[in-house]
Design brief:
There is one protein chain. The chain has 166 residues and is α/β, with parallel strands linked by helices. It has a single domain, classed as Dihydrofolate Reductase, subunit A, CATH 3.40.430. It is built from 5 helices and 7 strands; from the N terminus they run H-E-H-E-E-H-E-H-E-H-E-E. The strands form 2 sheets. A 4-stranded parallel β-sheet has the order 3-2-1-4. A 3-stranded antiparallel β-sheet has the order 5-7-6, with no helix packed on it. Helix 2 links the parallel strand 1 and strand 2. The longest helix is centred in the first third of the chain and has 11 residues. Bound molecules: NADP nicotinamide-adenine-dinucleotide phosphate. NADP nicotinamide-adenine-dinucleotide phosphate binds next to helix 2 and helix 4.
Length: 166
């Protein structure tokens, strides 16, 4: 997310390319069931090699090549349990983060030191997808923080945070 919790650009997609953030996400997602909104899943086609995508959609006939369609979060959790696992990783987008943060035990956040809204009108800015404000969904303690400055491969500084529900 950017400084104002924005997670996507005005035309969809993720508004930065940060190789260490991708690696961080891949490491957390390896072998896991990932809960994704249908829009995010479509953006990430071809990305899933060693994860199991569970795609949230209200479209009953929606096909998920290499994954599973789910109609609600309860169904996604049941899938994880029936596979003998105990962790569902919620990977966005904004609607799915909003629907699940109240149930989350841990948040893995990358704070990207940029402002996606810069140069946009307030109407455009208000319509950008955002991560919810964690403070509105309980008390969290910081269990990990890694700070990385900008460098030749990363145009923005990043902070990798892990928050655990108190
Ligand atoms: N920076 C990041 O870490 C990050 C991560 C993920 C995504 N993103 C960005 O976030 C943006 C997309 O987010 P978004 O909020 O627009 O879309 P989204 O959450 O990816 O997908 C929305 C769709 O998911 C389905 N859905 C959502 N909630 C549901 C529910 N409770 N029950 C059933 N189906 C449900 C609906 O699909 P149907 O319309 O098919 O019914 C809905 O249209 C993109 O810009 C993407 O790049 C950023």
């Amino acid at each position: 997310m950017d400084r104002h919790r924005v997670i996507g650009g005005p035309d969809g997609g993720i508004p930065w390319h940060l190789p260490d953030d991708v690696a961080h996400f891949r490491a957390a997602a390896k072998g896991r069931h990932l809960l994704l909104g249908r829009r995010t899943f479509e953006e990430m086609q071809g990305w899933f090699t060693d994860q199991i995508p569970l795609v949230l959609t209200r479209q009953e006939e929606y096909r998920v090549p290499g994954g599973v369609r789910v109609s609600d979060v309860t169904e996604a959790i049941a899938r994880v349990v029936s596979a003998g696992q105990n962790l569902l990783l919620v990977a966005g987008g904004a609607t799915v983060f909003a629907a699940t943060i109240a149930m989350a035990d841990r948040l893995l956040l990358t704070l990207v030191d940029t402002d996606v809204s810069e140069g946009l009108s307030s109407v455009q800015s208000d319509s950008l997808p955002r991560f919810p404000d964690p403070a509105a969904f309980g008390d969290w303690r910081e269990t990990s923080r890694i700070e990385r400055p900008e460098d030749e491969r990363h145009v923005y500084a990043r902070t990798f945070l892990e928050l655990t529900r108190c």
